[in-house]
Amino acid sequence: MTANAPAPAAPPGWDWDDDELVLVSALAHWSYCPRRCSLIHLEATFDENLYTLRGSRLHRVVDEPGSATSRGVESVRALPLWSRRLGLTGRADSVEFRDSVPYPVEQKSGRTRRWTHEALQLCAQAICLEEMFGVPVPAGAIYSHASRERREIVFTPELRAAVAEATAAVRAMLASETLPPAVDDPRCPNCSLHDACLPGLVGHPARLRGLAGELFHPTET
Q1: Is pLDDT larger for residue 133 or for residue 195?
Q2: Please, where are the H alpha helices in the chain?
Q3: How far is CA 100 from the centre of its chain?
Q4: Which of 26, 57, 184, 195 could cross-link to 199 by cystine, CB 3.0-4.6 Å?
Q5: Nearest CA to 174 among 80, 82, 40?
Q6: Given this model, what pLDDT does residue 50 score?
Q7: What global pTM score does this model have?
Q8: 32-68 burial by CB neighbour count: b if 16+ within 10 A, else e?
């Protein structure tokens, strides 16, 4: 199958209800912070900061469906994804087709770093593409627009297992409709949901109880 052909439709006999499906993008959110994932995907909470604004500006381009060919490699933008086995759905930033083998490329606005959370998301895209096109997808890449560098990610058995575990964890979180506890650690200051999450408050139950006591038992004057 070539990149110009339409992506295969979801198979007949889809085994998942709509509320059981997990978005591929939710896996990176979960890997970074389960509470952040819950705020976004359970409570539909999303605020902007400098980092998310940069990402939003980038995705205004990559989210526009289309294709292009360069040096014999065809790249398709905004390709819909699904995995019947894991109950995943979503969209790939771009997929390159190299001799009809899909090669997902995740676009990021920040500089190249470990990309641990994004690698999980990219591997989930590969698992979807394998089901959709019926061919192995051994690797993909994360491209940093800030540094203009590309880091290849090999989809090891360990990374694939982590995708399955994270998918199950996100599905269980959505079904429970319960926010995971706040952590209040070095991840929090740069998180766009810091003000909605309030990790410095709800992450410390004793402090929260003290403030609640002051709120409901005002000091007499």
Answers
A1: 133
A2: 24-32, 34-41, 50-62, 116-133, 157-176, 194-197, 199-202, 205-216
A3: 25
A4: 184
A5: 40
A6: 40
A7: 0.78
A8: bbbbbbbbbbbeeeeeeeeeeebbeebeeebeeeeee
